[in-house]
Amino acid sequence: MTCLMVIAGSDSSGGAGITRDTAMAATLGVEVKPVITAVTVQTQHSFAASHPVPAQIVAAQIHAALEDQRPDAIKIGMLGNTDIALTVADALHGHNIPIVLDPVLKSSSGGTLFSGTDLAPLIAQTTILTPNLDEAAALTQQPVATCQADLRRQANLLLDQGASAILIKGGHATGPHSTDHLFWRDSGMELHHPMTQPRLPQGRRGTGCALATLIASRLALGHSPTRSCRQSKDQIFNWIAAIG
Fold this sequence. Notes:
The chain is α/β, with parallel strands linked by helices. Helix content is 36%, strand content 25%. The radius of gyration is 16 Å and the shape is globular. The termini are far apart.
């Protein structure tokens, strides 16, 4: 069976984190190996607390998961702090497994989910990095992008850190359409693939977790990065539209 390692935190509301990741992977018939980085106390509307798992226990979980069936891809979500992020980067180094990194910095229910400053060692190993507009700005120390030139500048700064592709999500923008922008390089050429859907009036918690997990699951199934992003965005659109 196709297997995905998910490195992320728990969410007591069930709306995001490992619970959401497992549910979304299951829609594609992909089995999840969970590695817990933190326990969070949340409802659908509020954030109460976050308790990181000691970094050495996170590393031990990763090594144990790698000893059994080798995962076909890895999805990384909430890391909590720099110590855990660097530990995860070290534990995964050299395994040559596709990685989707969702750089979760804040919860949609209001809490801070990453208190550190350095994700560069993980970004250098990442197949697809999936920041939203605010996260892309924070990771590049730039203002939030307001035009395509801003997006391209931020994507190039992140590609320069070693990521193979960057998907900057447009869900936090405004306007009648939501466009995600996939950037990558091929033989030194910068390539850009925009993906657009109508902007829905309603939202749903855990969409970032869900999208990254679907992309990673499709990479695990052998799909190309572009196809994985396109089909996953369409699936998320239908998932949100179903609650309208």
